[in-house]
Amino acid sequence: MNIEQQYMQKVRKQRIQWFVFIVVLLALTVWAAIGTNFNLFVLFSGLSEGFSFLFHDLLPPSPATLPSLLDAALDTICMSFVAMILGSIIAAVIAMFTAVTTTPFPRLRYFFRAATALLRNIPVLIWALILVSGFGLGNLVGTLSLLIVSIGMLVRCFAEALEEIDRGQLEALKATGASHLQMITSAVLPQFMPSFIGWSLFNLEINIRASTIVGMVGGGGLGFMIQSGIKLFQYKQVSMAIILVIVIVLATEWLTGRVRERLI
Question: TM spans, by residue (predicted)?
Answer without folding.
Answer: 18-44, 72-98, 180-202, 208-226, 238-256
